[in-house]
């Protein structure tokens, strides 16, 4: 069953009379449980695509089916509503709130979902345990290493049990050991049934995916199997 | 979720200490200032509201137009109160208050002069709601020679003894009065303030059936359906029945004739609650408040709050780069913009709440100081008054929302996709709005500086204006008639002292005049309203008046005791070419008397510099209740001792009381002086808060430009050039604010000065002063941060990025 289906998707940025076509006639289908990597040179539109897939932004044109919803014309309110429970995000720069502790950062999505306090505590502790950072639960992000911060970010992405996780260069700011650990975690989550869409520059990381979508200048050039890479 | 918001808010407060301190301090000062203003205004508006039946109480005023002169006074006739009750059915009761001013009180060996003594009718305590702590409110003021005193006086004269039924000797003739009651101190917000009340039955003359002599205050209470306009109407009829018959006798013409010539003589009512703020007639019991000052205070209060809010807005948005990530994240996690706006508003309300709590402490601590400056008697306990708390709550919500509004809208407008790139230099983006807000703050500050300077200039101007005589070094003894037959001996003793330049008896205490009445020129039918008082031979010398024509009363001319001296204004009023050949007809005695004009004195301001000098006729007297002593020596302290010694020789055990004329004149401007002080305090506050904000902004700018400054220094920029670079931006804003401030400040002050007969010219340098001081203050504020930034080692600052 297809989880995500986009047809003829287009994204145009208009700034001071200059029009940038960031995405042009994109057609992609992603099935439930897939692990997809998006690759391509800098500025080709990877992040733009991921933002649209993640309902953070609207396309300029085209169709976008998320599950049974056609969301391309959703208002901000509708997108926020849909995003809340079903999509988790992992960023290159972690994006943890500096003023909140590890525990509180991970708890945040559940607060927005209005999960009762006792259940929140239990679920947050569960994922912290799983990410192996339970002992750091009362630390602030600045007190953690990059790898630990990214594990907190992943914990936060999965605590609401979303069906899709979107990751934009999740290993970009990490050394290879920490990067590998993060990739293993993502693969593990995928194994458990979570759909994962990941932007990456690293062919090594892309290797974890079932399928690679190559973008060039706003267009899908190849949608290919990973076998073409020799690692 | 609320706890989550508050947690973030609190951690932000502790993380950015300087900014939080500035924000909270600004809000604290702003709210404290506003609280003071609110309490001040509340007090002004609460005047006389403690009277249970106050909404049905009115005071009768008199409006007259006699000989072309308008008279608006609070003084009414003795029998009016009786007629009101007897002839106007809707009037339930009426009562009179007669201001007796100062009396000497004696009990056993204690003797003091007490002021604010009043004679009142027996229903006084039923009529008003002043609290009687001892005695029977229905009976205390019934019998002749009853006195009711304040708790303070009871303590002063009787200590622990029970004052009831004790006998005090009151006044120069030491009449016996029985203490029949003790009242709690009169509330500060009562328009009548008194220390002792004497029963009106003690003074038979208060029951004279004399309708044309207006000298006491009359109050009435109507029933619930009564209408004061109706009462005014009925009082017009009352004038026909009661005043008409005696009119001919006193004014030399019938009421009808008088009216035909344009004369007016009518009573009208003013609600008790309006007296303090809306009534400023002649003979008000105390200097009235003013609605316009209340408005001015309100505006200043709002100004201060706005400045504090702007600080908050500016600093919060300047710091927003740090919050952008949080906003982006919360949005990613599904938070709506409205929810986020709610979060930031919660945060600013929390800040305001902290500020408000601290402000309560500040107000509590500074209450005595504020009372001294404003002349109020506010109590710290009023802070917990339910109305005030309500207002405080409203202020917190209002300020919290206002201060938070712009940051909330601004911060939540970040697009997720932008923020998450992590490249947003959010602090820079709101520069336009921030510049506008800073300019606005300085606009307010400069307007306030200019206004304050002009208020002071005007006060100085009127107070130093030439009175036409030398008011310095004059000592005034106000109840010299106590000396009785020793009056002349006392005066002669003082005259013999070489350090005393002049001694003069009079029946009048300047500043002021207690008799303004009708005169005519001989052979002229026209009436002229002129002031008059009595003075002796030495008045010219004692007051240092200047003679323009003729001579002053002289011992060499025995007939002078029947003559008059007039001032230049009187000459103009009469239209005389050669005043010394004229005679004045004086209706003051039992019958009209013609008096020769023997001299003209240069106009001197015997009332107040608020008014122009009015026509004056001086009569002769040998002695009077008031003694003016001009001290010549350079040791006024010793002279006071000399005078006291001389006094004690005649009046052992009867204390001398005196005042200095220059202080009495200054006292006339007390309410303006207070306004000046209050203005200054709040102006300083406003500027201080604005500078706090500027300081914070400068700190932020310096932080933002560390890298730029580093590069400039590497390229050879001096500390000075960097400091001026940093100050240039603010200088521009202050200059714009200055230009925009000129006209409004001019307009406001010009209309304020309208109220003065003698007013200072608004000079351009006052504006220059306002602008320059704002500029200077802003430079000083910014330079600290700029210098700090400019002095940083460039190698270190470049490592930051
Ligand atoms: N807000 C925006 N306004 C205008 N143009 C934009 C905006 N965001 C992105 N672009 C443009 O759209 C194109 C795609 O940008 P995008 O961020 O998706 O690239 P990317 O593939 O993620 O690059 P990188 O690998 O460097 O992260 C670029 O040409 C970029 O300049
Ligand atoms: Mg990208």
List keywords for this structure.
heterodimer, A: 231 residues, alpha/beta, 6-stranded mixed β-sheet, 4-stranded antiparallel β-sheet, 10 strands, globular, B: 801 residues, alpha+beta, 4 domains, 6-stranded mixed barrel, 25 helices, 23 strands, 18% strand, elongated, binds adenosine-5'-triphosphate, binds magnesium ion
Record the SSE blueprint.
The complex is a heterodimer of chains A (231) and B (801).
Chain A: E1 2-15, E2 18-31, E3 35-39, H1 46-53, E4 61-66, E5 69-70, H2 76-86, E6 87-91, H3 102-112, H4 117-130, H5 146-158, E7 164-168, H6 176-191, E8 195-199, H7 203-206, E9 211-216, E10 219-225
Parallel strand pairs in A: 3-8, 3-9, 6-7, 7-8
Antiparallel strand pairs in A: 1-2, 1-4, 4-5, 9-10
Helix pairs in contact in A: 3-4, 3-5, 4-5, 5-6
Chain B: H1 2-15, H2 17-45, E1 57-66, E2 69-73, E3 76-77, H3 80-87, E4 91-107, E5 110-120, H4 124-127, E6 132-135, E7 146-150, H5 151-158, E8 167-170, E9 175-183, E10 196-199, E11 214-222, H6 228-251, H7 255-260, E12 264-271, H8 275-278, H9 291-318, H10 321-332, H11 337-374, H12 386-412, H13 416-419, H14 426-429, H15 431-464, E13 474-477, H16 487-496, E14 500-506, E15 516-521, E16 528-535, H17 539-543, E17 547-550, E18 564-567, H18 568-574, E19 583-586, E20 593-601, E21 616-620, E22 626-631, H19 636-650, E23 658-660, H20 661-667, H21 670-704, H22 706-714, H23 719-753, H24 764-791, H25 794-799
Parallel strand pairs in B: 5-10, 7-9, 16-21, 18-20
Antiparallel strand pairs in B: 1-2, 1-11, 1-12, 3-11, 4-5, 4-8, 4-11, 6-9, 7-10, 8-9, 13-22, 13-23, 14-22, 15-16, 15-19, 17-20, 18-21, 19-20
Helix pairs in contact in B: 1-2, 1-11, 2-9, 2-11, 2-12, 2-21, 9-12, 9-15, 9-21, 11-12, 15-21, 15-23, 15-24, 21-24, 23-24
The complex binds adenosine-5'-triphosphate and magnesium ion.
């Amino acid at each position: 069953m297809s989880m995500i289906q986009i047809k003829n998707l287009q994204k145009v940025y208009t700034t001071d009379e200059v029009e940038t076509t960031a995405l042009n006639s994109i057609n992609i289908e992603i099935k439930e449980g897939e692990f997809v990597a998006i690759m391509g040179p800098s500025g080709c539109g990877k992040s733009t695509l991921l933002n649209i897939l993640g309902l953070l932004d609207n396309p300029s044109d085209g169709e976008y089916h998320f599950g049974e919803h056609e969301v391309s014309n959703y208002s901000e309110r509708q997108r926020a509503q849909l995003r809340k429970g079903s999509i988790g995000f992992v960023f290159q720069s972690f994006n943890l709130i500096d003023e909140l502790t590890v525990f509180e950062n991970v708890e945040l999505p559940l607060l927005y979902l209005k999960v009762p306090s006792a259940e929140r505590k239990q679920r947050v502790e569960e994922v912290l345990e799983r990410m192996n950072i339970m002992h750091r639960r009362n630390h602030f992000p600045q007190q953690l290493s990059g790898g630990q911060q990214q594990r907190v970010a992943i914990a936060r992405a999965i605590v609401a049990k979303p069906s899709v996780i979107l990751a934009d260069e999740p290993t970009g700011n990490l050394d290879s050991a920490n990067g590998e650990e993060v990739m293993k975690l993502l693969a593990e989550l995928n194994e458990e049934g979570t759909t994962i869409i990941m932007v990456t520059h690293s062919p090594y990381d892309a290797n974890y995916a079932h399928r690679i979508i190559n973008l060039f200048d706003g267009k899908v050039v190849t949608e290919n199997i990973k076998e073409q890479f020799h690692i | 979720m609320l706890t989550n918001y508050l947690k973030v808010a609190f951690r932000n407060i502790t993380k950015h200490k300087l900014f939080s301190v500035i924000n909270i301090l600004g809000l604290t000062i702003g709210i404290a200032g506003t609280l003071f203003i609110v309490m001040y205004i509340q007090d002004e508006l609460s005047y006389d509201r403690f009277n249970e039946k106050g909404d049905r109480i009115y005071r009768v005023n008199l409006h007259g137009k006699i000989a072309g002169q308008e008279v608006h006074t609070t003084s009414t006739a003795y029998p009016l109160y009786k007629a009101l009750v007897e002839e106007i059915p809707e009037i339930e009761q009426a009562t009179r208050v007669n201001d007796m001013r100062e009396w000497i009180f004696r009990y056993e060996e204690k003797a003091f002069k007490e002021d604010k003594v009043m004679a009142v009718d027996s229903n006084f305590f039923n009529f008003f709601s002043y609290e009687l702590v001892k005695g029977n409110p229905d009976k205390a003021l019934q019998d002749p020679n009853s006195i009711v005193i304040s708790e303070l006086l009871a303590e002063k004269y009787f200590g622990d003894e029970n004052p009831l039924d004790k006998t005090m000797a009151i006044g120069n003739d030491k009449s016996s009065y029985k203490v029949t009651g003790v009242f709690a101190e009169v509330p500060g917000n009562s328009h009548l303030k008194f220390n002792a009340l004497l029963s009106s039955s003690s003074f038979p003359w208060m029951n004279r059936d004399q309708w044309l002599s207006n000298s006491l205050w009359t109050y009435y209470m109507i029933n619930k359906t009564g209408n004061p306009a109706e009462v005014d109407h009925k009082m017009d009829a009352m004038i026909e029945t009661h005043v008409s018959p005696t009119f001919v006798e006193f004014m030399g013409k019938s009421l009808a004739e008088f009216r035909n010539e344009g004369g007016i003589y009518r009573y009208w009512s003013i609600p008790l609650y309006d007296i303090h703020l809306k009534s400023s007639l002649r003979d008000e019991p105390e200097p009235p408040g003013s609605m316009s000052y209340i408005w001015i205070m309100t505006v200043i209060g709002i100004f201060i709050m706005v400045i504090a809010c702007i600080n908050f807005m500016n600093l919060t948005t300047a710091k927003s780069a740090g919050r952008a990530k949080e906003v982006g994240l919360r949005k990613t996690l599904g938070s709506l913009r409205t929810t986020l706006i709610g979060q930031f508003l919660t945060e600013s309300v929390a800040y305001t709440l902290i500020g408000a709590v601290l402000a309560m402490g500040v107000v509590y601590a500074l209450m005595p100081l504020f009372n001294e400056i404003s002349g109020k008697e506010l109590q710290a306990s009023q802070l917990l008054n339910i109305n005030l708390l309500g207002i405080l709550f409203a202020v917190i919500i209002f300020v919290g929302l206002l201060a938070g509004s712009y940051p909330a809208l601004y911060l939540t407008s970040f697009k997720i996709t932008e923020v998450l790139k992590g490249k947003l230099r959010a602090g820079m983006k709101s520069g336009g709005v921030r510049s506008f807000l800073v300019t606005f703050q300085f606009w307010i500050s400069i307007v306030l500086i200019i206004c304050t300077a002009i208020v002071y200039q005007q006060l100085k101007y009127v107070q130093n204006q030439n009175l036409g005589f030398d008011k310095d070094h004059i000592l005034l003894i106000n109840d010299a008639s106590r000396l009785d037959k020793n009056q002349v001996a006392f005066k002669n003793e003082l005259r013999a002292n070489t350090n005393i330049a002049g001694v003069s008896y009079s029946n009048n205490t300047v500043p002021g005049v207690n008799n303004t009445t009708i005169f005519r020129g001989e052979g002229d039918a026209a009436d002229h309203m002129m002031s008059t008082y009595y003075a002796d031979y030495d008045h010219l010398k004692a007051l240092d008046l200047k003679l323009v024509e003729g001579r002053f009363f002289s011992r060499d001319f025995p007939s002078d005791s029947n003559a008059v001296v007039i001032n230049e204004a009187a000459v103009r009023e009469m239209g005389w070419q050669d005043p010394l050949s004229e005679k004045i007809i004086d209706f003051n005695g039992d019958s009209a008397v013609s008096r020769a004009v023997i001299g003209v004195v240069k106009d001197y301001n015997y009332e107040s510099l608020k008014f122009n000098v009015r026509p004056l006729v001086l009569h002769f007297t040998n002695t009077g209740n008031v003694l003016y002593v001009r001290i010549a020596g350079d040791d006024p302290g010793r002279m006071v001792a000399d005078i006291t010694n001389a006094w004690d020789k005649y009046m052992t055990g009867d204390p001398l009381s005196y005042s200095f004329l220059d202080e009495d004149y200054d006292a006339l401007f007390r309410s303006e002086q207070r306004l000046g002080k209050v203005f200054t305090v709040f102006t300083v506050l406003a500027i201080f808060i604005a500078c706090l904000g500027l300081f914070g902004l400068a700190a932020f700018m310096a932080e933002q430009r560390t890298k730029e400054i580093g590069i400039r220094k590497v390229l050879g920029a001096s500390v000075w050039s960097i400091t001026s670079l940093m100050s240039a931006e603010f200088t521009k804003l202050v200059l714009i604010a200055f230009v925009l401030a000129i006209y409004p400040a001019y307009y406001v002050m010009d209309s304020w000065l309208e109220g003065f007969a003698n007013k200072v010219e608004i000079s351009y340098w006052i504006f220059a002063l306002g602008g320059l001081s704002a500029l200077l203050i802003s430079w000083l504020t910014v330079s600290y941060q700029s210098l700090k930034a400019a002095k940083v080692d460039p190698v270190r600052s470049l490592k930051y990025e």
